[in-house]
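Supplementary Methods S3. Complex input for the nicotinamide-adenine-dinucleotide-bound model.
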Amino acid sequence: MEQKVPITVAFGDGIGPEIMPEVLKILKAANAAIEIETIEIGEKVYNQGVSSGIADSSWESLRRTKVFLKSPITTPQGGGFKSLNVTVRKTLGLYANVRPCVGYYPIIQTKHPKMDVVIVRENEEDLYAGIEHRQTDEAYQSLKLVTQPGTEKIVRYAFEYAKANNRKKVSCFSKDNIMKLTDGLFHKIFDEVGAEYPDIEKDHWIVDIGSARLADTPEIFDVIVTSNLYGDIISDIAAQITGSVGLGGSANIGESCAMFEAIHGSAPMIAGQGIANPSGLLLGAVQMLVHIGQPEVAETVHNAWLKTLEDGIHTPDIYREGVSQKRVSTQEFGDAVAARVGQRPTTLAAVEYDKERNVCSPVPRLQRRPAGKKEVVGIDVFVHDRSTDKQAFGDKIAALSTGKAKLRLVTNRGVLVWPDGFPETAVVDHWRCRFMATEGTISSADVVELLGRFAAAGVDFVKTEQLCKFDGVVSYSQAQGE
Ligand code: NAD
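Predicted complex, serialized as structure tokens:
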């Protein structure tokens, strides 16, 4: 008897408690060698006043088993509650979110019969760092953090995944025409790392037109690697256009732990009706079986599921008159898949998993790059001020210049307003005042002296940002209109 692998399971919220038992039933029927530990997460835990939605004892299980099969959970809206999904992904270092989106034509209605795209979404950074501040009466800020190691890890993962799964092309989606530093870094690392994979075709798309093409002509894509927010949005679109968002599974891979789930959420609108499609969670579980070294079982389950679809046994979200044979409940669908364990599809292509390599979690090589030479050549000071007279505001701030740091320009929402701004430019109460070093570089003490003048003049500064050159390269954005 094969050694059973301990896994942590959470039944989740909404449709979660309906779809998870079906998935576990199918895994049992396929003789998956797993030992299940159940934990409670989500709404019930939030309601006990635990703002993270997960108790300490549950972390203990996750850190021990390192494998998490998770039903969707409901994230309470607003005030004080953090998204548990984001918390688990980031706390366990699950940096790669892998979402295969496949069309099952002619069995399932889709406009894209040849669709077979895997979205590799960065999972820890970008706007999901969750660092937000209200800075003034009128201005709110969310920090978009993109790091070189984080980007290199996800881009390498995407190429290694493509190699392990015989995929031909990796496409990068970014918005580096606008965000030249953050998205620019993502694109640059994609080019650098991609050069190490000469056998894999690669291209880069600006995310807006890339998403439009993905929705319209998904067959031109193979593997897509992108940052957290874009990946979140495009993977829902990609899953939906395969026929139903209920069909997509997702793996969240880290260096030591991994979490497997459906792409979709807890769908409270259809909870309790017994009509949810358990397929997304089941395909997440298939990825889990590959990850824990049971590719044979993964193959058995995946093919039994394809055979069920092919036999026209469909939950209401994919049921279509004339093509489907039987409209079934969540439980009947689970029974049908379990009954087909050992069978393979004939119209749809049967899947085969590599028995030698872990194609779900290929390990990317990563070496931290050496630090560069940093020079601070100026400082941006952000000010909360309700002035509407741009010239007078700029003149007031210019008078605070020191011998070491002189006001170069003022922007409002990124647009130059001093000197020589346009009268038409609208302003809010959030100003960026750019001081440049008069002698090449400035020190922290120079910045303190400058801010001392702000304080003495009663100017409300809300934050500062260093203006740096790294290895001589200007590493801050210019003002619009500069
Ligand atoms: P959702 O994905 O839960 O549901 C949107 C709609 O898609 C549903 O109304 C339903 O019509 C359909 N749908 C989704 N899953 C289905 C399935 N398995 N079978 C049939 N139809 C299905 O999105 P939402 O309504 O925006 O989010 C509901 C809650 O889920 C929110 O609290 C959200 O924060 C949470 N959420 C959780 C996760 C997660 O746990 N990983 C992911 C996304 C959203």
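The chain has two domains: 5-339, 374-474. The mean pLDDT is 94.
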